[in-house]
Amino acid sequence: RPLHAKAEQHLMCEEHEDERINIYCLRCEAPTCSLCKVFGAHKDCEVAPLPAVYQRQKSELSDGIAMLVAGNDRIQAIITQMEEICRTIEDNGRRQKQHLGLRFDSLYSILEERKKELLQSIAREQEAKVQRVRGLIRQYGDHLEASSKLVESAIQAMEEPQMAVYLQHSKELLKKITDMSKVSMSSRPEPGYENMDHFSINVDYVAEMLRTIEFQTGA
C-alpha cells in the first residue's frame, strides 16, 4: 500500500536521525537517505529517487497482481470445467447403469418366457400320459368289476341244487364267461412310458455365453 503523506514525513533514517529517507539504493535494494549516499554505507552504490522507484515497483506489483488474478481466473475456470466433467461423468454413469439394467431385464424376460414355454411342453405331455394311463386303469377296473360279478353269479349257480333250474341259466352263464375271457386286456403302457428324461436341457453353453457378456469396445 502507498504510504500516507504524514507517515512519509516521519520516515527517518536510522543512521542519520535528522535525515528523511528520500532515495533508493539500487544495489542494496533498500530505501536510504542522502547522507548515507554521500558519507555512509551507500556512498559507492547507485541510487535513484524514491518516487521513481516507488512508482516503478508499484507498477510491477500491479502487473504481478493482475497476472496472479488472471492466473486465478484460469484456475477457477479449470476447476469449474472439471466439476462439470464430474457431473457429466455421474450423469453418464447413471444413464449407462439404467441402460444396462434394461438390457438384463430383457434377458430375464426372454429366459422367463422360454422357461414358461418349456414347462408347458412338459405339462402337456405329462397330462396326456397320465390321462392315457388313467383311462387304462378305468378300463381294467371296469373289466375287473364285471368279472368279479360274473364270478359271484357263477358261484351262486354252482350252489343251485335243482338240475333243471341250473340248466336253465348255465348255458347263458357259460357264454358270458367265455366272452369275458376273450376280452383282450393287453393294452398297457410300453416299457419306459413313464420316462420324462427327454425333456432334459443343457444350458451349459448358454451359461458360458452369458458369462462372456462384456461392454462393447469403441462404442
TrEMBL record:
<dbReference type="GO" id="GO:0030154">
    <property type="term" value="P:cell differentiation"/>
</dbReference>
<keyword id="KW-0539">Nucleus</keyword>
<dbReference type="GO" id="GO:0061630">
    <property type="term" value="F:ubiquitin protein ligase activity"/>
</dbReference>
<feature type="domain" description="B box-type">
    <location>
        <begin position="8"/>
        <end position="50"/>
    </location>
</feature>
<keyword id="KW-0862">Zinc</keyword>
<keyword id="KW-0175">Coiled coil</keyword>
<keyword id="KW-0808">Transferase</keyword>
<dbReference type="Pfam" id="PF00643">
    <property type="entry name" value="zf-B_box"/>
</dbReference>
<feature type="domain" description="COS">
    <location>
        <begin position="158"/>
        <end position="216"/>
    </location>
</feature>
<dbReference type="GO" id="GO:0070507">
    <property type="term" value="P:regulation of microtubule cytoskeleton organization"/>
</dbReference>
<protein>
    <recommendedName>
        <fullName>RING-type E3 ubiquitin transferase</fullName>
        <ecNumber>2.3.2.27</ecNumber>
    </recommendedName>
</protein>
<dbReference type="InterPro" id="IPR000315">
    <property type="entry name" value="Znf_B-box"/>
</dbReference>
<keyword id="KW-0479">Metal-binding</keyword>
<dbReference type="GO" id="GO:0005634">
    <property type="term" value="C:nucleus"/>
</dbReference>
<keyword id="KW-0863">Zinc-finger</keyword>
<dbReference type="InterPro" id="IPR033492">
    <property type="entry name" value="Trim54_Bbox2_Zfn"/>
</dbReference>
<dbReference type="GO" id="GO:0008270">
    <property type="term" value="F:zinc ion binding"/>
</dbReference>
<dbReference type="InterPro" id="IPR050617">
    <property type="entry name" value="E3_ligase_FN3/SPRY"/>
</dbReference>
<dbReference type="GO" id="GO:0005737">
    <property type="term" value="C:cytoplasm"/>
</dbReference>
<keyword id="KW-0221">Differentiation</keyword>
<dbReference type="InterPro" id="IPR017903">
    <property type="entry name" value="COS_domain"/>
</dbReference>
